[in-house]
Predict the structure.
Amino acid sequence: MNLPKRALTVIILFLLLGVVAFAFQRRMRFPNPEEDALIPENPDEKTEFVFARLEYPQINVGGYWGRRGSWTTDYPKADRQFVVGLKRLSRIHARSKEEVVSLDDDRIFSYPWVYAVEVGHWDLTQEQANRLREYLLRGGFLMVDDFHGSFEWEIFTAGMSKVFPERAVVDIPQADVINHTIYDVTDRPQLPGIQYLYTGREWEYDGYEANWRGVYDDKGRVMVAICHNSDLGDAWEHADEPEYPEKWTTLAYRITLNYIVYAMTH
């Protein structure tokens, strides 16, 4: 049966409006990392561990990230929500409020573990790279997360070549002690971000497979743990979102807990 042209147009418009309304409703269900972050209890408490987030300069300033910078992705909800899990799953005495540190001063040396997100956008100066190098060689630990595909990988490694021009980025073997400090993590699949709920894809750009890589010092200690083509930050942030798969959130907490305990004991 052939529908009149006008009737067909009305049907198409109705369907489009329904799709837009559905997408809007789904979007509204997801928390805003600024507005919906947990209110820290005793934020100035003196503790043995503080979640430290790295602030850095970036390329392509403007657009979506022009207001604050890509280093603020998921901030501060992901940080605070991760710390809640850290307290429940370990005996680490952790502060409920995160700390932002930069490479422009020496405060970074006060934190044994530092988290950097979206490092496929960073643009370190040589002076900043030198301070990061010193921090790592003095026993510090850097975890980088939530960057995807070959283009962002090239930007990240360009920054790392300023930090360690003589050291290679290598795969972290599954048997490495870093994967077994608290939890025996024997399977490290790709951990997709919240975009999975909209697209059904576990990858972003051309980052089809997860890469768990690192930079080692001369004694075989991991100094930089690299989570490429995965988004652990989203897994923490959306741990309270029923639509985000629990299996990915659970693994993201286990991997990061291993990294933190490793950083504080090696």
User: Anything to note?
Assistant: The chain has seven helices and seven strands. The domain at 47-265 is CATH 3.40.50.12140 (Rossmann fold).
